[in-house]
Amino acid sequence: KKLLDLLPLPTFSDRLAGNYLANPVKTLDDYQGDARIDHNISNNDRLFGRFSFERAKQYLPTGLPDFGATGGFASNQTFKTRAYNVALSQTHIFKNNLINQASAGYNRVFNYITSFGYLSNKSSEFGIPGANLGTDETSSLTRMTFQNFVGIGDRGFSPFQGGTNVFHYSDTLTKVKGSHSLTGGAAVRFMQLNLLGDTALAGQFGYTRLFTAAFTAAGGLNASTGNSIASLLLGLPSTGGRNDQLQGSVKGRRWREYRGFIDDTWTVNNSLTLNLGLAYMVTTPQSENKDRFSNFDFYTGETFVGGTIGVKTDYSNIQPRIGFAWSPRESTNMVIRGGYGLYHDVSAIGGATGPYQNPPFANAYSFTSDNITPVRTLATGFPDNSQPVDPANYRGTWTTIDPNIKQGRIQQWSLNVERKLPSSTVMSVAYAGSYADRLFDKSRDLNTAPPGPGFNAAARRPYPQLQAVIAALSRGWMEYNSLQLRVERRASNGFFLLGSYTYAQALTNGVSGFGGDPGIVYFPVVTDDDVDRGSSNTDLRHNFSVSALYEVPVGNGQRYLRDLKGLPEAILGGWQINTIFVAQSGYPLGMSMSTNLSGTGFGNRPNRICDGRLDDPTIAKWFDTSCFVAPAPGVLGNAARTTLFGPGRWNADLSLSKKFVRRLQFRAEIFNLFNHAQFQTPGTIVGSPTFGVIQSTVKSSRQVQFALKYVY
User: Fold this and answer.
1) Whole-model pTM above 0.85?
2) Helix, coil or strand: residue 83
3) Staple partner for 158: which of 62, 115, 254, 493, CB 3.0–4.6 Å?
4) pLDDT tens across 146-177, in order?
5) In Å, what is the CA distance from 466 to each residue of 62, 151, 309, 377, 522?
6) pLDDT, tens digit, for every residue of 218-272?
7) Rounded to the nearest 10 degrees, how much is the dihedral formed by the CA atoms of 546, 552, 557, 563?
8) Residue 66 CB burial class (10 angstroms; 0-12, 13-18, ≥19)
9) Considering only CA atoms, which of 33, 28, 160, 30 is closest in space to residue 84?
10) What span, in angstroms and rounded, lies between the C-alpha atoms of 205 and 238?
């Protein structure tokens, strides 16, 4: 009851969902500074230096007061940033066609997150044992989630520190010889990541409706009955766990990046230019500065402690590039451009999770009940998890890295035809595509049970003695193809116009790495990629935009009323109109079940028994919800990972501006000019009262603002 009292009462009593309204205030204080020096040592030597800093603090509310949490990473929280940057470079001219630039740099960025309950020790106050252990890191309120309701407690990975130190050294030599411009060089970066953070340092509980659900005639649990809040009042969580950091809470990752390249820009003749390049890159596996890493190879069962924990260096990162620009018959009205490049991605290697979370340097306790017999309750809280455990005898959750992990590989290609038209207009038609593979997938539980009775039953898992095995893998892929049209009328006679249209498709296997693709991924239980093939979260099939600037030809020296002076000129002359219009198709939808009865640990999709598209969808029923039904218990649903699309959106903004005198400018801006509602995607969880229902908009209603600027 004390926990429920932390949540506010509804502000709307006529609805079960979306029944609370708040107007929270987000605050941001940001201070930045720069200092720079440029010094010519001699005619052939130039020195450059820069120092920058930033101190920022942001309060980010959820809309719920105090301990209310709208998601696993969304509680009322404060972000702080402390950043410093130093850059030095020296340019030396050997001769007119030979130049060298040497650079060195240091970048330090430390980010901190604390939630509302930091230092409150609220779990101990409420009588939840084993949550607050007397340290700052464990002083928050245990995070609790409730099926079909908002949650309570402090966000995951809070408190958090993500601090990077990057030392960068490079040298580039450029030589011009005849029709060739050759550039070659090398760079090395020494990377440090000093991290404090774990999933649930004060613990987490997940409540579903199943502990209070009725039984079906067949003896199973009726997922349409029960209430997760009733499960809370009984103190019966379905899932839960907590994490302990041992031998120090701040862990220091270390790795290095090496890259060499050569590039040739070759002017073949007056109509053809080629760009040819080749680069090679090596990134070393991560280690910990005090050897506090360990790893578990899921496929062999082998454990590694210290060093690079069995992860092999990827030496396959060759990066060829080719591009061309061709003007047929030396035409000044037409140019054809094209190119291909292969790149590698290492950005995800520094994520917040990692092998510092493994024994003997950390313990991760978790449990999953059968929703009949409780494993833990609110009264029993969390067991003592503070003693180091031999990795060979560990029975908890592993956070692992595939020893054979590869760097992400991205191939991009394009062909563009640009043509000059009358009236200062340029039109282009382009095809652009890309294919990325070996993309980073860092949150996949490999130790999940295949479909069957119960919930992720240990007896059916590949390693029954373990909980989850959260693996970092290089198995994601994404393919993108697009047709792009663009028309630009360059500024002439006071008029500018830019319009573009893109028809595109972006498909993935659910792990493209762009913020989470929609739908439930069936890997690793189903290894056929076609089963998880579907839309990326960036799959906007149609995207159109047009912007224009028009200087109204009225007033002194203009086409109309060119002799206007005095007050009439001050009122009627010097006006300018700017507008932008954007329209796009809807985002993809991935349907899922509110209650997972498949027996796996990753959720389930529904069965799709008909198409689901409606000729006249409404916000109350965007698609035919009867086309998506619950599969039988112990079975995976047959719906594709993504099926339908949400509502399209369009918006127009307009601004009017006028210069009264040389230093005074008036501006009126109208956002969402036509006050057009732009809707969020509908609910996609089968069994939820919001399934198929659009509850919110993504852009505010019409806003008008006025500004007066004086330049001095």
Assistant:
1) no
2) strand
3) 115
4) 998 889 999 888 899 989 999 999 999 999 99
5) 35, 28, 19, 21, 20
6) 888 888 899 999 999 999 999 999 888 888 888 899 999 999 999 999 999 999 9
7) 170
8) middle
9) 33
10) 8
